[in-house]
Amino acid sequence: MGRWIFLLFAASFSCGAPAQAYPAKAVKIIVPAQPGGGLDLIGRTVADQLGRAMGQSFVVENVSGGGGQIATQATARAAPDGYTLMVGYVGTHGTNPAVRKVPYDAVKDFTAIAMVGGTPNVLVVHPAVPVTDLGGLIDFAKKSAGKMNYASGGIGTLNHLAMEQLKADAGFEATAAHYRGIGPAINDILAGQNQMMMPGLAAALPHLRSKKMRPLAITGLKRHPLLPDLPTFEESGFKGFDGVQWYGIVGPAKLPSEITQRLNAEIGKALAAPALQQRLVAEAIEPMPMTPAEFGAYIQSELARYTQLAKERNIKLDD
């Protein structure tokens, strides 16, 4: 009798142990871009916060290439045990699968864990480009007879799709130069290799402050408090430029609910802390806490939004 009671107790303890013991070893957070830029900032911020809260190492691994496809496939194929996570963002789970064929399902192949925050996109030019506003850029681009070029953080990213949308709406030509992440793209803008781009404000902000880039317009329905003198695209006569460069944490499909809920709770606690809020806002990232269910629904709505946009504007990208 005593032996059976012991075995029953041991079995019930072992069933609950995985969730209670998590994380029992280092957790990898894949960032689908090279170091630098908003994605890397989010990955390292979340890794630091979770490491402190959960008493275990959360290690960032930068995996760039294919507009996030390499990182996304690696995450989708990982064991659903909570030890491989990824910074999922509007490119991997919104614009990219909306405008090209990708080897993953942005909804079915992942577990939505937690939304972190979002930042608007800002149209910038190298200081050598002789324009000071959006209208001036459009006129200059039209007169340049297709000699303009722009940088993107990869095919299918929001900064790519937004530039293609602007080209179509404004009626000018510009050649895309795609990079393995927003960091390298920004570096070549700073070096004068490309003339313009539309990065997330979080990634662009340090270079705007140092005046190494000139801002011309910003996405969103209202001006941003960090750049109160910069008009929105809508103010400049272009509607539909209200997208947000959002960032969240996802894992492989079928991640245990206990692990998903714990990670969500810890990220939520971190986002509620005034110190972290101030840090994110200073970097132009607005915290956007959500439950796993809310984040999953948000991903589906974003995918539908950009799929419809691509269809309406006939934007289809080839590798």
What would your notes on this structure say?
The structure is a single chain. The protein folds into two domains: 25-118 and 247-312, Bordetella uptake gene, domain 1 (D-Maltodextrin-Binding Protein, domain 2, 3-Layer(aba) Sandwich), CATH 3.40.190.150; 122-218, D-Maltodextrin-Binding Protein, domain 2 (3-Layer(aba) Sandwich), CATH 3.40.190.10. Helix content is 45%, strand content 17%. The model is unreliable at 1-19 (pLDDT under 50). By secondary structure, the chain is α/β, with parallel strands linked by helices. The longest helix has 21 residues, at 292-312. The chain contains eleven helices and eleven strands. The strands form two sheets. It has a six-stranded mixed beta sheet with strand order 2-1-3-10-4-11. The chain has a five-stranded mixed beta sheet with strand order 7-6-8-5-9, sandwiched between helices. It is globular, with a radius of gyration of 21 Å. Strand 1 (27-31), helix 2 (38-54) and strand 2 form a beta-alpha-beta unit.
Q: How large is the count of helical segments? A: 11
DSSP strand count: 11
Query: What level of helicity do the residues show?
Result: 40-55%
Q: What would CATH call the homologous superfamily of the largest domain? A: Bordetella uptake gene, domain 1
CATH topology of the largest domain: D-Maltodextrin-Binding Protein, domain 2
Name of the level-1 CATH class of the largest domain: Alpha Beta
- Give the averaged pLDDT, no decimals: 90
Instruction: Strand order, main sheet: write it out.
Output: 2-1-3-10-4-11
- Regions with pLDDT < 50 over 5+ consecutive residues? 1-19
What is the gyration radius calculated from CA atoms? 21 Å
Taking the alpha carbons of the first and last residues, their distance comes to 67 Å
Order of helices and strands: HEHEHEHEEHEHEHEHEEHHEH
* Percent of residues in β-strands: 15-25%
Quick one: overall form? globular
Assign the structural class, choosing from mainly alpha, mainly beta, alpha/beta, alpha+beta, or little secondary structure.
alpha/beta
Largest sheet: 6 strands, mixed
Number of discrete domains = 2
